[in-house]
Amino acid sequence: MKKQPMNKKTTTALWSRRKTREVMVGGVGIGGRNAIRVQTMTNTDTKDIPATVEQIVKCARAGAELIRLTTQTPEHARALKKIKEILRQKYNLEIPLIADIHFTLTPAYEAMKWADKLRINPGLFGHKFAGKKSFTSKEYQEALSAIEETLKPFIEKLKEKNIPVRIGTNHGSLSPRILEKYGNTPLGLVESVMEYLRIFKKYDYNNLVVAIKSSDPLVMIEANRLLAKTMDENGMDYPIHLGVTEAGLAEDGRAKSTIGIGVLLLEGLGDTIRVSLTEAPEKEIPVCYSILQATQRRITKTEFISCPSCGRTLFDIEKVTKKIKEKLGNLKGLKIAVMGCIVNGPGEMAGADYGYVGGAPGKITLYRKGEVVEKNIDESKALERLIELIKENGDWNP
Ligand code: SF4
């Protein structure tokens, strides 16, 4: 039987990641040569310190590397200090906290004392002419100058702390000024970010991350492509945070996120990701890691290939695959195939390192690198034998 090529290497070689600067958020690097980071956001009232701490701990245990918290007021910002202390003292947990700021910079000044990063939404603050829907070109320029005046002292403070900022625009909250000029379009989204980036750059502050989110994955994809291109043309190498906002519940939210984030990752864009689900934030984390694994951008667990089963299946493949995943799910970089039968030959295992294949009713055949290693193993003993085989070959590296 002809061996399949190991496709790990060939696909990795095709990936060219957009070059970005490294931005340090607490002890976690985003961009540069760092792994693509996984983040989420709490949905508690940040002032409810015990509930917020509990949720952060759950998210961290699930694998979150950065946590964003809503920070509406200086009081919310001060809660970050206490949250950090409890995480450190009670849980020995040093996870970077990001203060999410909208409407006014007042809480941002307080938050920068305690947070590891700030997120500001250009669409939702710094407006002169608040409530106005139509702008003459003179008023447009005046509004931009007003934003610059607001940001100037803020940037000076940021320089003292050297705290990173994410300029994060949402499709649903573009300013009326941008909406009038560009419409609710990818170009409008990009311009909303670029206005701020130009000001930050002018005042020589480059400790920045950028994001454009939309609940429509196609808009989000197009806008991020345009953002990367525009930044490249302007000599900006800021890391990009990817996410489909308000993706929703269950499989719909997961599908939208996978499309939006996955397509861009495959194109080499994205340095950190968040999957936004209408579920507990810790549920977002496994989806992030699955997207990174499936796009081969960050391998953190065993890769499983399992057949869909059919009338030829020789064992309860769903049950057995779950059991195998439970026991062998954390062998980073290993590819394991679980196949109901061998009708299409070992080639169907698509370059798996190990194969668990139905040989006859109740009997399993084990493969290694496409070659049969052992036949006719009783199904009740096959999983243990597979584990032994992996250990014997030095591949047991949890
Ligand atoms: S591997 Fe065998 S059992 Fe699985 S789908 Fe293909 S033919 Fe059916």
Task: Describe the secondary-structure layout.
Blueprint: H1 7-14, E1 23-25, E2 28-30, E3 37-41, H2 49-62, E4 66-70, H3 74-91, E5 97-101, H4 106-111, E6 117-120, H5 137-161, E7 165-170, H6 176-182, H7 186-202, E8 208-213, H8 217-233, E9 240-242, H9 250-266, E10 272-273, H10 284-294, E11 303-306, H11 317-328, E12 335-339, E13 354-360, E14 363-368, E15 371-378, H12 379-392
Parallel strand pairs: 3-4, 3-10, 4-5, 5-6, 6-7, 7-8, 8-9, 9-10, 11-12, 12-13
Antiparallel strand pairs: 1-2, 13-14, 14-15
Bound molecules: iron/sulfur cluster.
Brief digest:
With about 400 residues, the protein is an alpha/beta fold.
Give an overview in words:
The protein has 398 residues and is of the alpha/beta class. The protein has two domains: 288 residues, Dihydropteroate synthase-like (TIM Barrel); 90 residues, Sulfite Reductase Hemoprotein, domain 1, CATH 3.30.413.10. The protein contains twelve helices and 15 strands. The strands form three sheets. The protein has an eight-stranded parallel barrel, surrounded by six helices. It has a five-stranded mixed beta sheet with strand order 11-12-13-14-15, covered by helices on one side. Helix 2 links the parallel strand 3 and strand 4. Helix 5 packs across helix 7, helix 6 crosses helix 7 and helix 7 runs parallel beside helix 8. It is elongated and about 80 Å long. The two termini are 31 Å apart. The N terminus is likely disordered. The chain binds iron/sulfur cluster. Iron/sulfur cluster (SF4) binds next to loops.
